[in-house]
Amino acid sequence: MVKVNVAVLGASGWMGKVHTMAYQTFPHFFGEGNGTAHVAALVEANPQAANELSFRAPGAKILQSWKEAVNDPEIDLIDICLPDSLHYEVAKAALLAGKHVYCEKPLADTASEARELADIAREKGVITRVGHAFPRNPVHDVARDIITSGDIGDIKLFKGCQHVDVYSDPLAPYMWRADASLAPTGIVGDTGTHVFSIMHFLLGRTSAVIADNFIATDKRPVVDGVGYGEETQLSGDEEWRDITNPDGTNLLCRFENGARGIVDFSRIATGRKFRQSYEVYGTKGSLVYDYDEVNRLRFYSHDDPNGRRGFREIDVGPEHDTFRAFLPLPNFALGYNESKIIEVAEVIRSISTNTPIWPTFDDGHHICQIVDACMDSSKAQRWVEIS
Ligand SMILES: NC(=O)c1ccc[n+]([C@@H]2O[C@H](COP(=O)([O-])OP(=O)(O)OC[C@H]3O[C@@H](n4cnc5c(N)ncnc54)[C@H](O)[C@@H]3O)[C@@H](O)[C@H]2O)c1
Questions:
Q1: Which pLDDT value is given to residue 262?
Q2: How far apart are CA 387 and CA 373, in angstroms?
Q3: Same-domain status, 36 and 185
């Protein structure tokens, strides 16, 4: 049995915690037949947070520098849960050191960086994976099967969105996600990539976009120790920092398969704690998905008899391997963390069987191409082609 030694980088953060949990729990659901993982190192730059890490992965080395993990011969897999602007530098160093690399989204700040990473990975013959977890909910496997089987005909229109409201309040504090030096593409790399990953999973490549990025609030107060989405009281003495990347984007797109798309995403949609949905319209039918009903797909077929047509609800359940792994009955709901456990199980299977599984760094590169195109298009106020 293959046992993969992993270093989780950014271990105290949201994703660091989720990934660490997923390595430890996936064999409970998927067994050990496709390999197991040992969290051998947790890397965290914040010394206070690092001191509190050891209980999460007993026996793991607690490190403060990602370079130590990358150069550690005992580590097989580098798992990057760091702020966006570090992804490229760390992933490149890890690939050059011959490690397998699993990197949170967005893979890199630019498509050319992502291309370089994918090329190095190919030269080194290592396994790569980007953390686009939402499509790993088996409901999207069903959507893709319906699309690829031709049951809804030729796809003509995709509508997708993702919104939160962490920045709807103009007094909500500054966070690294709103700083272009740490997250150069802002909401586009942060949230747009989730919608783009769903688009790529369901419809394939995007060929052109025209985007309108916007900043809703120019300056925000700096309040130390406030986590993502947490509310706080201001003292009035805060430093105010410029917001330097987009809060929201509205875009039109075209797909290589000829379909058109309308997509919007933001962090300023007041009252939308987490809104994600899509609609896919084909010549013979359509699909509608809403994260509020996380495992439910609505399917309309024009082949149904006239007078009996309407959207039917498909509750994805244990007839799917990745659902049955967790739950014996439908409608008990597989949520976000289960998507991450599925993802981590696939990362380990990918390494143990030496088989790339979507989304690799090549797929992450295409998603970064869409991000680049949105940034360029919004700046130039015109359509930008993706080749
Ligand atoms: N796939 C998803 O659904 C999803 C969800 C949330 C975040 N993300 C991505 O995951 C990444 C991390 O996001 P997060 O929400 O976990 O952020 P976070 O701020 O909660 O955590 C980042 C952690 O990295 C640590 N860190 C920063 N610089 C470091 C360095 N040089 N060395 C070691 N540790 C360092 C921080 O102290 C912090 O603990 C981002 O790229 C984000 O886009 C993906």
A1: 98
A2: 10
A3: no
| Per-residue pLDDT, 239 | 95
Domain containing 139 — which CATH number?
Answer: 3.30.360.10
Probe ligand 1: pick from 78, 81, 134, max atoms within 8 Å of CB?
Answer: 81
Q: What pLDDT does residue 121 have?
A: 98
The span from the CA of 244 to the CA of 181, in Å, is 8
Provide the b/e sequence for 19-50 (b: ≥16 CB within 10 Å).
bbbbbbbbbeebeeebbbbbbbbbbbbeeeeb
Question: How remote is the CA of residue 83 from the centroid of ligand 1, in Å?
Answer: 5
On whether residue 28 sits in a domain, the answer given is: yes
- pLDDT of 226: 85
Of ligand 1's atoms, which has the minimum distance to the CA of residue 18?
A: 16
Residues 259, 375, single domain; the answer is yes
Is there a single domain that holds both residue 292 and residue 153? yes
Same domain, 267 and 331: yes
Ligand 1 centroid – CA 157 distance (Å): 34
Tell me, yes or no, whether 195 lies in a domain: yes
Q: In angstroms, what is the span from residue 120 Cα to ligand 1's centroid? A: 24
Structural domain harbouring 21: 3-134
Examine the domain organization and report whether 9 and 112 are in the same domain: yes
CA of 31 to the centre of ligand 1 (A): 28
Q: How far is CA 297 from CA 59, 102, 273, in A?
A: 43, 29, 21
Residue 270 is predicted with a pLDDT of 97
Ligand 1 pocket: which residues have CB below 6 Å? 9-10, 12-16, 43-46, 49, 66, 81-84, 86, 104-105, 131, 133, 190, 228
Domain presence at residue 278:
yes
pLDDT of residue 230 exceeding 90, the answer is no
Please classify residue 217 by burial: count the beta carbons closer than 10 Å to its beta carbon, then call 0-12 exposed, 13-18 middle and 19+ buried: middle
d(CA 206, CA 155): 13
Pocket test for ligand 1, best of 12, 78, 82 (most atoms within 8 A of CB): 82
Each residue's pLDDT tens digit, 55-69? 999 999 999 999 999
Q: Which of 113, 134, 155 is the last residue of a domain?
A: 134
Output the pTM of the full model.
Answer: 0.96
Q: Output the CA 63–ligand 1 centroid distance in Å.
A: 16
Residue 108 has what pLDDT?
Answer: 97
Residue 158 φ/ψ, nearest 5 degrees: -120, 130
